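To whoever is on call:

I kicked off a structure prediction for a single chain this morning and the downstream step that reads the tokens threw a length-mismatch warning. I double-checked the sequence; it's 104 residues and nothing unusual in it as far as I can see. Pasting both halves so you can look.
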Amino acid sequence: MSDINNIKTAGQPGLNSPRNAVNSRENRDGVKAEGVQAGAPHTDKVSLTDTATQLQSLQQTLADAPIVNNERVEALRAAVADGSYQVDATELAQNMINFESQLR
């Protein structure tokens, strides 16, 4: 097995060029890019549309909302405990059918 140090780089453009030529932000014709100053730090900017800002706000609101509606759970517990909770068998059967059809 040959040594990795035996790799030849002669004849491959860019591999033997000085480091400052690579960092000068020139295109291959030697022309400096407009609006880019050599040596100036480049900063990226991100701006969000109004819709993206609203979606971000809505996402945070949903993340802060409780997963369980405790008031509804307590109302159902009380209705089951006192016997006033009624199950509509037809609606329950239809909901089960709809759920099954969504799984396919």
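Update from on-call: the warning came from a stale cache, not from the record. Cleared it. Sanity check on the structure: The chain has a mean pLDDT of 78.
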